[in-house]
Amino acid sequence: MQASDLLKIAKTYGDPVYVYDSEKIVSQYQRLTNAFKGVKKLKLNYAAKALSNISILRLMNSLGSGLDTVSIQEVELGLLAGFKPESIIYTPNGVSLEEIEKAAALGVRINIDNLSVLEQFGSKHPNIPVCIRINPHVMAGGNSNISVGHIDSKFGISIHQIPHLLRIVDLTKMNINGIHMHTGSDILDIDVFLYASEILFETAKNFKNLDFIDFGSGFKVPYKTGDIETNVEELGQKLSAKFNDFCKEYGKELTLAFEPGKFLVSESGFFLAKVNVVKQTTSTVFASIDSGFNHLIRPMLYGSSHEILNISNPEGRERYYSVVGYICETDTFASNRRINEISEGDILCFRNAGAYCFTMASNYNSRFRPPEVLWHNGEAILIRERETFDDLIKNQIDVKNLFSKKEMKKEKATAK
Known about the structure:
The structure is a single chain. By secondary structure, the protein is α/β, with parallel strands linked by helices. It has two domains: 244 residues, Alanine racemase (TIM Barrel), CATH 3.20.20; 128 residues, CATH 2.40.37.10. The protein has 13 helices and 18 strands. The strands form two sheets. Strands 1, 11, 12, 13, 14, 15, 16, 17 and 18 form a nine-stranded mixed β-sheet that branches. An eight-stranded parallel beta barrel has the order 2-3-4-5-6-8-9-10, surrounded by five helices. Strand 14 and strand 15 form a beta hairpin. Helix 2 crosses helix 9, helix 6 runs parallel beside helix 7 and helix 8 runs parallel beside helix 9. It is globular and about 65 Å long. It starts with a helix and ends with a helix. It catalyses: meso-2,6-diaminopimelate + H(+) = L-lysine + CO2. One of its GO terms (molecular function) is pyridoxal phosphate binding. Its EC number is 4.1.1.20. Homodimer.
């Protein structure tokens, strides 16, 4: 996309606004598919939590992707978007048995990550195939909040609990059809995947009826020009060879599965916001925008660094700015960042805004969530409207009669 296209979208749909480039999503999907062309059976299950707009889900479905879901609501969204139940894998954490049973009743694949629920589910539904999420005890990820495969993680069944797991499977006679792991996000070192794969392959040998092995995801994408990223081509070559060798030893062609989210949609996204105020203090120049962590929380939550461009003045000389929001708390997107000279009214563009950005937005400070626009075949298509005041109060119940003068008098009289 060109800056002129983004400026036109901001003018047409207002700001702040999220924009997604479908061409980038398609190219990322094809890149990952090509990286693992060495295996006979490959399945990419898009992680819906990264960006769950139904139009994005429909795009993924059209590419042949499956869907990775973590809640019953994401399962229902996937079905509404046209995914077949068997193309959806449900990988919750800490949910009730009732929710898992509801997902199973919808026909999707079930992935269980704790011994307690595994035993309960297997005892009640031994004929429903189940995938097991293993915790390989591998510390990986760009931030402690997104490292989920280490020994103190709440996710997965510890590899040290395999004997307990096997006892449950034996006693319930349940059918284990998949083995799964996910070590974290923003993983740069492919040796992490290769090391964890050996643990997963060794675990898989305990189960005789597997259909697939799921390696999760966590591939690192570049956040600025020249930034480092996971070499998925090298990973594809090395992991495919290991996987094929395992399939020969296992005696069956299994499906190699991944659950990419950020890798597919992060770079497709742009977040556009207008500069309300340029404020000079004794040591800092602030560029205050018409947004805050109610719309984009990742820099404050994860310390993520999004490249910020002044698309209104791309040729201006660079100066140092701290880009901040309008929330009545400290909401700093960038500190002392070199950006082309900013004036009030300019549109700033945050890159890598496709993953875990809108999906984590809120109505904090009673602000409206922004619209979403899909850039597809050179055309801007609105895929979510900007919220209004009616949306903000839609589910609230106004109990104003409780505080009428008449009711207050009754309350005082009762108190006496």
